[in-house]
């Protein structure tokens, strides 16, 4: 079977972690994969999550199958998080991570849409792979301008205007991965208006809710699309905001025109989930439901989320200040305006390779730095190395 097969390429993000693990150098730093680290460089289990797990340990009575869609209480908790309240023209299923949600959405787009999805240039490296594997045609719309290090607004809106009815557009709800460049509330209104007028649907990747400004403020895009009556899927991930990475906890929500259509959507969400993974892994979803239904645990979780967000903001400023102090040939103020875990640093492939081979600092080939992996302990070393790379 494998005789004439060449090895698959290393994954652009998780493959980097594999290479990092094998690197014998002391002091190596992984700023590739989007994982939050605390001041000490650890990725601890959130206290709210540990407390919920203690409760679950006692309360759990069975390991029997989950319903195909997951527990209804989980679907309600997800809707309250993404919309602020329940939405009667939507259907939510519990999926294995945000990736599972994207795959189910892609399968449904292949069955019920024009089979073409538009992604931003650049986008998360795995988007293209997931959509292509589900049989969709993937096209790109312009998004980021490397010169201004900001949104290429004219090209972006110009391209959205030309997308045909029935196609789907992948939008990052907040904390655009990898650029960190988000669109404003007014721009979201414009996007939603174009979608409603031209008849394309949206697939909203909501992997970083709470890492931009807050759980509430980060809903701005979803709210605009909802108000404009756009058909959409929302792929949620709780890897980052609950720190549940390895529990693979996500959700897919379909927003339809009417409650009856949402019921139809639910039947297809379930039918598709059943043939891919049958029913979801329980643990992460039970943790989230437990936290969301308990006022004290919700408060604790919110404070932990605030703490993660403000630590990342602090690291952004320290990185920009550190590079500026070292006289790098660029204005670094853009770094503090970017949202979420990542900074699109502007480093080119050679500079990225230099950091890996000479300094044992791993960042994604696109020049994306995981700012959430910077700590007071590694900041000076990273600033020295990045400044040296930038001056090359
Ligand atoms: C990332 O972009 O680093 C994360 O979303 C993790 C992943 O699965 O790629």
Structural class: alpha/beta
Cα-atom radius of gyration: 21 Å
**Can you summarize the main beta sheet?**
7 strands, mixed
How many structural domains are formed by the residues? 2
Q: What is the CATH homology-level superfamily of the largest domain?
A: Type I PLP-dependent aspartate aminotransferase-like (Major domain)
Q: How much of the sequence is in beta strands?
A: 5-15%
CATH class of the largest domain: Alpha Beta
Number of strands: 13
Pattern of helices and strands: HEHHEHEHEEEHEHEHEEHHHHEHEEH
CATH architecture of the largest domain: 3-Layer(aba) Sandwich
Helix content: 40-55%
Q: In terms of per-residue confidence, which ranges show pLDDT below 50 for 5 or more consecutive residues?
A: none
Examine the coordinates and then state which fold CATH places here, giving the name of the CATH topology of the largest domain.
Aspartate Aminotransferase, domain 2
Bound molecules: (2S)-2-hydroxybutanedioic acid
Which strand order spans the largest sheet, edge to edge or round the barrel?
2-10-9-8-7-3-4
How would you characterize the overall build of this protein?
This protein is an alpha/beta fold and 392 residues long. The protein has 2 domains: 14-45 and 297-391, Aspartate Aminotransferase, domain 1 (Alpha-Beta Complex), CATH 3.90.1150.10; 67-293, Aspartate Aminotransferase, domain 2. The protein contains 14 helices and 13 strands. It has helices at 14-22, 47-59, 72-83, 97-112, 125-133, 153-162, 185-198, 220-227, 259-276, 282-292, 295-325, 334-337, 349-359, 379-391, and strands at 29-30, 90-96, 116-121, 137-142, 144-145, 150-151, 168-172, 201-206, 232-237, 249-255, 342-344, 361-362, 368-370. The protein has a 7-stranded mixed beta sheet with strand order 2-10-9-8-7-3-4, with helices on both faces. The protein has a two-stranded parallel sheet with strand order 1-12. Strands 5-6 form a two-stranded antiparallel sheet. Helix 8 (220-227) links the parallel strand 8 (201-206) and strand 9. Helix 2 packs across helix 10, helix 4 (97-112) packs across helix 9 and helix 7 (185-198) runs parallel beside helix 8 (220-227). The protein is globular and about 60 Å long. The termini are far apart. The model has no long low-confidence stretch (mean pLDDT 97). The structure holds (2S)-2-hydroxybutanedioic acid. (2S)-2-hydroxybutanedioic acid is lined by residues 13-14, 33-34, 124, 126, 177.
């Amino acid at each position: 079977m494998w005789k004439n097969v060449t090895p698959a390429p290393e994954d652009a993000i998780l493959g980097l972690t594999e290479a990092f693990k094998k690197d014998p150098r002391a002091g190596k730093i992984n700023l590739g994969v989007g994982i939050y680290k605390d001041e000490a460089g650890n990725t601890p289990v959130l206290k709210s999550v540990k407390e919920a797990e203690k409760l679950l340990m006692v309360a759990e009575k069975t390991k029997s199958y989950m319903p195909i869609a997951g527990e209804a209480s989980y679907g309600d908790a997800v809707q309250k998080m993404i919309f602020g309240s329940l939405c009667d023209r939507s259907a939510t299923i519990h999926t294995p991570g945000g990736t599972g949600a994207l795959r189910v959405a892609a399968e449904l787009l292949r069955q019920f849409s024009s089979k073409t999805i538009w992604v931003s240039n650049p986008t998360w490296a795995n988007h293209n792979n997931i959509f292509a594997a589900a049989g969709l045609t993937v096209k790109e719309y312009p998004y980021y301008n490397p010169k201004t290090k900001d949104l290429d607004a004219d090209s972006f809106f110009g391209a959205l205007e030309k997308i045909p009815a029935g196609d789907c557009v992948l939008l990052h709800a907040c904390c655009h991965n990898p650029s960190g460049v988000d669109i404003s509330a007014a721009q979201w209104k414009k996007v939603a208006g174009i979608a409603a007028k031209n008849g394309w649907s949206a697939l909203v990747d909501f992997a970083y809710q709470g890492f931009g400004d807050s759980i509430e403020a980060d809903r701005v895009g979803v709210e605009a699309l909802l108000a404009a009556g756009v058909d959409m899927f929302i792929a949620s991930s709780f890897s980052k905001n609950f720190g549940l990475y390895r529990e693979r906890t996500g959700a897919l929500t379909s927003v339809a025109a009417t409650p009856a259509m949402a019921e139809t959507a639910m039947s297809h969400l379930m039918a598709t989930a059943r043939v891919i993974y049958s029913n979801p892994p329980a643990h992460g979803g039970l943790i989230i439901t437990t936290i969301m239904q308990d006022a004290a645990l919700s408060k604790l979780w919110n404070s932990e989320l605030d703490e993660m967000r403000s630590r990342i903001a602090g690291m952004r400023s320290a990185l920009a200040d550190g590079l500026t102090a070292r006289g790098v040939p660029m204005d670094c103020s853009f770094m503090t305006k970017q949202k979420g875990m990542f900074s699109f640093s502007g480093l080119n492939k050679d500079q990225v390779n230099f950091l890996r081979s000479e300094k044992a600092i791993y960042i994604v080939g696109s020049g994306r730095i995981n700012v959430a992996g910077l700590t007071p302990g590694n900041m000076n070393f990273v600033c020295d190395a990045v400044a040296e790379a930038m001056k090359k």
